[in-house]
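Quick one:
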Amino acid sequence: MSFLDSLRTAFKGGSEARVPLARSFTSPWSVAFETSVTRLPFEYRRVIKEAFLENPVAQRAVRIAAEGVGSAPLAASNQEVQQLVGTTSAGQSLLETLAAHLLLHGNGYVQVMRGGDGRPVELFALRPERVQVIMDKEGWPAAYQYKVGDHTLTLRVEDEDGWPGVIHLKAFHPADDHYGAGCLSAAEQAVLIHNAASAWNRALLENAARPSGALVYSPGEAATLTPEQFERLKAELEAAFSGSANAGRPMLLEGGLKWQSLSLSPADMDFAELKAAAARDIALAFGVPPMLLGLPGDNTYANYREANRALWRLTLLPLAGKILGGLQQGLRPWFPDVTLAVDLDRVPALAEDREKLWSQVAGADFLTDGEKRALLGLPPVEESKP
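Output:
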């Protein structure tokens, strides 16, 4: 059954009843004697518009991390599981979508679709801003409400037979028991500063890409323009000399008028450095080296190769490990011995590191062949008997 079919079925028959799950002990964040829906995280949709849809730095940082995780080569002990994780569902790549959700929202929800035999046939990533956690009387997650417009679908954590229905992945949040904290919440202020600086630059370009000046009227002692003269002069300037289309156009002034250019002080020009600093803060929040985003003035890494290696070591591998570990645990009822991990030997950015490791292990004469294979993460090989 597809995800859309599940929605249609729920809308025809109404939402399922909230069935609390039995637990052997009381949750430390217990909500006494009532089922409740936890609060939602920050205003996700507004921040998404300001950051991912309107800010080039934030969008590129998220794409680098999410697409890197989505394209990482996998090593799975079960071919069926590898196919489930690697298959595109409803036009979305599962790993790439979950990585983007964790970075932006801090939560990832995977609905496990099952076939007629009860085994998983599809994994679908739900939009996290549409999901609310429903707690049982002890404060544990009992179900998830998925809201699409005016319709609500209730997806229980486990069905009547104890099979998982939703796999919840979340980033660490020190002040919330049920929702994770996304990188976007930390980068929100830097995004607003960067957007404001871009808007200021655009306004400057629309005003001939230079600081404005002042018209000085000095025909004699204590002389001023009449209201009619002032309004006529203002209208002529706006019509003939304002905007980028009139940049560089010569100005003919009448007697008593002279143009005095105004320049920005060094303190006023700090907006350029402020914009660059905000861009670096955005890259820092998403764990992407600024050098990979083409940001000027960043010399943290000696070269592009070193920055790319740091991206994999510090951001992509931990993020991929969190996602694959959560999927592995969620699919364990059907595949008890399954293992999911990134195949480090097939990551081009880590080829140099792996080459050094292989050379060191190969030169260790005090290790047996079995111990060398174990250090390299390779499965043991049975030695043939003579």
